[in-house]
Amino acid sequence: MTSPLVPPEDMLCFDVYGLQQSLGRLYAQLLEPLKVTYPQYLVLVLLWEGEPLSVGQIGTRLGLDSSTLTPLLKRMQQ
What we know:
By secondary structure, the chain is mainly alpha-helical.
């Protein structure tokens, strides 16, 4: 009996994950001279829109919970 599962190397999720990792490394290189991390950059992009946002709204838009977002914002504030 053969397995009905698709081999991992043929699964789209593996390609998407690899792409995400590659983009993360690229952004890290581009943002390093600015001393900004990729998550910090995403927050700055949202704030640049000019619309006042609460911490909860930022978290919702970025898909981050407050336990991740609050320390990130505190580091940015310093």
